[in-house]
Design a protein that fits this description.
The chain has 305 residues and is α/β, with parallel strands linked by helices. Helices cover 35% and strands 12% of the residues.
Length: 305
């Protein structure tokens, strides 16, 4: 692979710093973090539990840097169940070697079944047991996606597998490593890449009460929505596809903290509400686990509608 110039590291670092709303004074540190990632000095172990691999697919939709650069230039992936080329015995050996060595950032995608451990197995070992071994050797644990962060769809009622979040599984195991939750269904690639680099060179970002980075999840999506003026003017859409604020159609932007409306998806081209869908609140701790969403649809008084 062609060597990467310092200029390239600085350029990509500038893009990440801008995307995360960080101070430009951090560009040299972020650039150094990217360099460490590219040389394998900052290895990442990525495990997938009860998931659809949607966060991995979203991760590969990264635009700055792109997926080719991420996988060949920046990320030293010890193991990834979807992206690893190795299979069978070779994959198991790579995983075992990585855990024995330790010192990595553990990325977990998907929930962890505690009620029926055999619902998710890797090499005849329950995912919960593998997770404990991997977490014990990790510098930090990053929960990517709603399922890993808060249980998500696998933990939705009736939750027959006893699916739980990374923090829930760590608590049961009596472990307390640094944890960062990056909820979303899926998680935006910028959230994943930016926060991994932040952990490497700046440290654990400032977190809210749900262990989410405040720079990413610190403001209500509703307050940043392009239809906020229509909300204030009580110009509500009555049917899907209508113009106007979609609060009356069940949009959960009024209770969801994320920067989707400012960041956009698919390279900033679009996001849910702009495409005239409602926000489903996938960054909320309660996503998919609320039995009754009617509060958000019909409690107009609560939100001044």
């Amino acid at each position: 692979m062609k060597p990467v110039s310092r200029r390239t590291f600085l350029k990509d670092a500038g893009i990440i710093v801008a995307g995360m709303g960080l101070s430009t004074t951090l560009v040299p540190q972020i650039a150094h973090g990217l360099e460490e990632m590219s040389t394998g000095r900052a290895p990442i172990l990525w495990l997938q539990g009860q998931s659809c691999s949607g966060c991995s697919v979203s991760f590969l939709n990264s635009s700055n840097p792109g997926p080719a650069d991420l996988l060949t230039r920046y990320l030293s992936l010890y193991f990834h169940q979807t992206l690893s080329a190795a299979t069978g015995v070779s994959a198991n050996d790579a995983l075992a070697t990585a855990i024995d060595k330790g010192g990595y950032i553990l990325v977990v995608e998907g929930a962890i079944p505690l009620g029926i451990p055999e619902a998710c197995m890797i090499n005849n070992e329950s995912f919960y047991e593998l997770f404990q071994r991997a977490a014990s050797k990790a510098k930090a644990v990053v929960a990517v996606g709603a399922c890993a962060s808060f249980g998500g769809i696998p933990a939705a009622p009736p939750n027959v597998t006893g699916a739980t979040s990374v923090q829930g599984a760590l608590k049961k195991a009596g472990m307390n490593p640094p944890v960062i939750n990056l909820p979303g269904c899926p998680t935006h690639p910028d959230w994943t890449v930016g926060n991994l680099v932040h952990v490497l060179k700046v440290g654990i970002p400032e977190l809210d009460q749900h262990a989410r980075p405040k720079r990413t999840y610190g403001r209500l999506l509703h307050d940043q929505c392009q239809f906020f003026a229509q909300y204030q003017a009580k110009e509500f859409a009555q049917h899907p596809g209508d113009q106007g604020c979609q609060f009356k159609l069940g949009c959960q932007g009024v209770v969801t903290h994320s920067d989707c409306s400012l960041r956009g998806w698919n390279g900033g081209v679009n996001w849910c509400v702009r495409s005239r869908s409602v926000c489903v609140g996938c960054a909320r701790p309660e996503f998919a686990r609320d039995r009754d969403y009617s509060f958000y649809r019909f409690n107009d008084t609560e939100h001044g509608a």
